[in-house]
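User: Fold this; tokens only.

Assistant: Input:
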Amino acid sequence: MIQPVKEKIILGIDPGTTIMGYGVLKIKGTKPEMVAMGIIDLRKFANHYLKLKHIHERVLGIIESYLPDELAIEAPFFGKNVQSMLKLGRAQGVAMAAALSRDIPITEYAPLKIKMAITGSGRASKEQVADMLQRMLHLSKEEMPVFMDATDGLAAAYCHFLQMGRPVMEKGYNGWKDFISKNPNRVK
């Protein structure tokens, strides 16, 4: 059950080194509303370090414009190209550092978890995620962006919204033996 809040702003980010997507959700009570979504276009920068500088500046600008209470960011997934993974991790880190510099708490979500939360399938396409968000948030066709990186950023925010009020598992167990050893008083 989603816990009602007076008002909360969630910034969602889909990290990228060419196009970085973002979405901003406002939660009133238990009702989410899309405030903004867009992209940070990094294609004009040839130098990776200039891209990182631009990410930092733009994310700070988005934070100053919408004053989010929390940041939900997609975690990089492991690919075959180590260099691409490293660059993507840097881009994500710079976005996270911008949020941390404004004392905004961060939650990371695996791409599979975000897709599962939005569509019910971890193998959903970007188009399916965008379509579900359009339906759930009652967005018009005109409000839908050209780049689906923006809807992916919004999806991270929406996934975070769906997690509101859910208990966090404090203990993890590696099978029954582990459970029994950590909880001897619960086993007869």
